[in-house]
Amino acid sequence: MKTVVLYIDKLNPGMEKLAMDRCPPDVSLTFLEPVKDGVKGTFENADCLWNTTAKITREIIDMTPKLKLIQRTGVGVDNVDVAYAKEKGIPVSICKGMNAVSVCELAILHMLSLYRRIVTLDTLGKKGEWHTMTYRLESYELQGKTIGVFGAGAIGREVMKRVKAFGARVIYYDVARMTPEEENAFGCEFVSFDDLITQSDIITIHAPWIDSTTGIIGKEQFKKMKRTAILINTARTQIVNHEDLMDALKNKLILGAGIDVFDPQDPLHGIEKEAEGLNLVVTPHIGAATYDNFNRAFKFCFENSQRIGRGEVPLFTL
What we know:
The chain has two domains: 3-98 and 291-309, Rossmann fold (3-Layer(aba) Sandwich); 100-282, Rossmann fold (3-Layer(aba) Sandwich), CATH 3.40.50. It is 35% helix and 15% strand. The protein has twelve helices and twelve strands. It has helices at 13-22, 58-62, 82-87, 100-115, 118-126, 154-165, 180-186, 193-199, 219-224, 242-250, 272-275, 291-309, and strands at 3-7, 27-31, 48-51, 69-72, 92-93, 146-150, 169-173, 188-190, 202-205, 230-233, 256-259, 280-282. It is globular, with a radius of gyration of 21 Å. The two termini are 27 Å apart. 41% of the residues are buried.
């Protein structure tokens, strides 16, 4: 008997095909909303639920009577009712560390784009405006700057490795401090959260969204930042108060911001006119959205689904 997987997100055709191409013979891959060649599935027949951005709620769990595994194709679990899954004895697995390079590279892309005004200059250039002199003294190198990494997990550590190659100083804050050997290996220095805010030229967020990080960066923190600081958030929108961020950008409390995460009520939505002239780069939560990451993630997700089919314990469960 094949293990039945139901992927509940509506994917693009390329992602659907990649998942189908990676599917082993002992797994039946189905889709709640197939987009091209995928097989339509139902909650009633699913042994495993996979999700990328779609929510897995208490109601969905109750609609899936054969459910043996909830498999995230990423690492965040704020779109899964983990407490209810645990209550029902259903493991929730994450793709631990697999998206680290993809998210890290996007964070660094935001840093460089903001420091060199790439998006602004591209937009102006396409309008026929040649601003070769405009931003020369408002553009910067990563070399010699202090990069503050908030969250020293897999993604934060990948960022540390790469920005060190640019010649930057790395400081970090995390509730769980690295060992001295790890700090030496990554060439980083542990500081308090307040020191991270005040000392950093660039603050890049790689912490999880939990109660203690909700709104942890807001008005008071922006006041303490360097006027030449930039903020990068590729983690979760709820960690930063975006109304306060917009005020900080408009009032030039900081130099710029790169934001990859939003929610439907986010004040950064619909800001075309407000954003004019601001050094703000936004992307639609694409940190993990690379072929390389999903190629790795799908292989792992199928391996875990096979383990469930064989009666084995799945990997990387919460």
